[in-house]
Amino acid sequence: MPPDTFSQALLDWFDRHGRRDLPWQREPTPYRVWVSEIMLQQTQVAVVIPYFERFMARFPTLAELAAAPLDAVLAHWSGLGYYARARHLHRAAVLIRERHGGDFPTAIASVEALPGIGRSTAGAVLSLALGQRHPILDGNVKRVLARSFGVTGWPGQAAVQAELWRLAQRLTPALRVDAYNQALMDLGATLCTRTRPACERCPVGERCVARRQGRQAQLPTPKPSRRLPERATLMILARDPQGAVLLERRPPTGIWGGLWSLPETDPGRDPADWCRERTGAAPLRLEMHPPRRQTFSHFALAMRIAQVWTPAAPMGIADTDREAWWQPGALAALGLPAPVRTILADLVPPDPGQPLPRE
Description:
The protein has helices spanning 3-17, 23-26, 30-40, 45-58, 62-67, 70-77, 84-99, 108-112, 119-130, 139-149, 158-171, 177-190, 209-213, 271-279, 338-347; strands at 230-239, 245-249, 260-261, 264-265, 285-295, 300-309, 323-326. By secondary structure, the protein is of the alpha+beta class. The chain folds into two domains: 3-213, Hypothetical protein, domain 2 (Endonuclease III, domain 1), CATH 1.10.340.30; 230-347, Nucleoside Triphosphate Pyrophosphohydrolase, CATH 3.90.79.10. The chain has a four-stranded mixed sheet with strand order 4-1-6-5, covered by helices on one side. Helix 3 (30-40) packs across helix 4 and helix 10 (139-149) packs across helix 12. The radius of gyration is 24 Å and the shape is elongated. Mean pLDDT is 92; it is low at 352-359. Its cofactor is [4Fe-4S] cluster. Its EC number is 3.2.2.31. Pfam families: HhH-GPD (PF00730), NUDIX_4 (PF14815). It catalyses: Hydrolyzes free adenine bases from 7,8-dihydro-8-oxoguanine:adenine mismatched double-stranded DNA, leaving an apurinic site.
């Protein structure tokens, strides 16, 4: 399919059916588009919209994001998952303030140099916000191109990805790049979907290799399957006599990085031993709750949950930026992993003035 035929067909379709009223499209500044693109990584539009609107209400400018504490950013990200995105977003805002005078850079090399921004995200921000000619290659676009042009092989392989990038570069038009890139993403999100694609309504369906060969279910080639490894942990829901909850901040990297979470220990350990070691006394009361399971991209986590009521004067636990006692009314403002937020919502009676929301 000639590049100009493909791009013009998409632009014509976008003019009739494209999405043009998403929150970040109403005022497509580089800052707003950047935040939306980071949120949209591995997350659907319908999920992102309310998070984006709350995030913009709290951090309406890049300067306010850079000046905010990381805890506040993580709290507004809680429930979206993939928390490294929030940490990178905050770090990038600080770097833009320090290195670019607070203005989002307009050179693609400078954008790609920021934390959490790869080639596709950089191209999306500069094309959608500023109209610069850059190709994009997110998951939706990979699917559209692989099917339209019959590109075989898992897109995670370097050679396959390189071929898709060559296609993306060749097909990107010189004019209306913002509309074209948005059309590509919209097509993948609404018609050229992973399952049950609406090929009869596709603007490029007549020349699509996958449709012609009946290979829509085979393209793009799926990632080779493998069984997720299993991990287990014991989560301690410690309460002091005043009802406060003990939380520990997670390490800056890894799952739930930088978020406040419940203390964890070996899954086979006696929770009473944990209490004696951490507080210097046996628990006043101990309850075991049904285990829960959380699936991540690379493993599945089985969580045993023990609720422990500590003595009146816990020893060895002091409020710091690494661990602290939190009253139930303060939990809603913290950056918490969604499973931990759900556990707390289920097991900790809320403060009447500020209930803990479920995710």
